């Protein structure tokens, strides 16, 4: 099991960043690495609420974790502290034991330099997930989050 940790400064207030973390339409726009599309199938943004999301590669050469080109995962919100923290537990929809198991994602928001400091901690990554690729995907997603919240 692996862990990645990515930090980002966002030139937007915490309330605006937090809102983008728990809004399914915003999640579909930012929580997706480059070269992929995102579909939010279900999304109940409350503690104990569940969600299901699919990320699909645009390139036919890329292999998905769930099927030919798609990574689908299910999860639940464990902790939601407005403007401060989102904790979710996710698991890929897969038959591959190297990709199976629950992962915990903790996003923490703090006041920072007239904006928001964000730390995304992704724990329990299955052995079949490259830590470097996971970190790159998070950085790309947080770039999209910045573009979304900083333009408003």
TrEMBL record:
Pfam families the record matches: AHSA1
Coiled-coil features, chain-numbered ranges: none
Location of the Activator of Hsp90 ATPase homologue 1/2-like C-terminal domain: 12-150
Gene3D superfamilies tied to this protein: 3.30.530.20
InterPro entries in UniProt: ASHA1/2-like_C, START-like_dom_sf
Family membership: Belongs to the AHA1 family.
Protein name (record): SRPBCC family protein
Organism: Nocardioides mesophilus
Upper classification of the organism: Bacteria, Bacillati, Actinomycetota, Actinomycetes, Propionibacteriales
């Amino acid at each position: 099991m692996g862990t990645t940790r990515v930090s980002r400064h966002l030139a937007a207030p915490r309330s605006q960043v937090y809102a983008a973390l728990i809004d399914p339409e915003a999640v579909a726009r930012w929580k997706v690495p480059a070269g992929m599309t995102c579909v939010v199938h279900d999304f109940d943004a409350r503690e104990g609420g569940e969600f299901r999301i699919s990320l699909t590669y645009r390139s036919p050469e890329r292999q998905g974790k769930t099927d030919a080109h798609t990574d689908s995962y299910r999860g639940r919100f464990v902790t939601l502290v407005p403007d401060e923290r989102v904790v979710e537990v996710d698991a890929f929809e897969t038959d591959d034991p190297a990709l199976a198991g629950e992962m915990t994602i903790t996003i923490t928001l703090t006041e920072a330099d007239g904006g928001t400091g964000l730390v995304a901690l992704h724990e329990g990554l299955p052995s079949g997930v490259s830590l470097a690729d996971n970190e790159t995907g998070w950085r790309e997603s947080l770039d999209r989050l910045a573009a979304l919240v900083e333009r408003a």
